[in-house]
Design goal:
46% of the residues lie in helices and 13% in strands. It has helices spanning 2-27, 32-52, 63-69, and strands spanning 89-93, 102-106, 112-116. A hairpin with an 8-residue loop joins β1 (89-93) and β2 (102-106). The termini are far apart. The protein binds zinc ion.
């Protein structure tokens, strides 16, 4: 009984950074499988690092991919959101205002639409 409890506690402590990293990486547009694997040797250190990293471009389509998927979003005078139809698009630099790598999201519904210069 004691061995089983110890094993469960060990598994919980060892695997929880993996689960946390997967969850956090998905929300920060970073590779969730890679971060879950990094959670095993580096435990919560990798979770803390991931927490302070800026959002990445993993899983975010490029503008070309976005327009291929949503051809009606090309309006002639700009791009519109496929989720709500708003033409108010916010462009944020990944690490700051001057970063060339941009993530474009809808000002109305907040959905991340596409990335440019990644
Ligand atoms: Zn929208």
């Amino acid at each position: 009984m004691g061995v089983l409890v110890n094993l469960l506690v060990w598994a919980l402590i060892t695997l929880s950074p993996c689960v946390i990293n997967y969850w956090l990486a998905e929300r920060k547009s970073r590779n969730p499988v890679l971060w879950a694997i990094l959670g095993f040797p580096f435990t919560f250190l990798s979770s803390i690092l991931l927490l302070f990293l800026p959002p990445g471009g993993y899983g975010v389509p490029t503008l070309e991919e976005y327009l291929q998927k949503h051809p009606n979003c090309e309006t002639g005078s700009g791009i519109k959101c496929a989720n709500c139809g708003s033409k108010s698009i916010r462009s944020l630099g990944v690490t700051g205002a001057n970063d060339a790598r941009r993530r474009h999201s809808c000002n109305h519904c907040g959905v991340v639409l596409y990335k440019t210069r990644f």
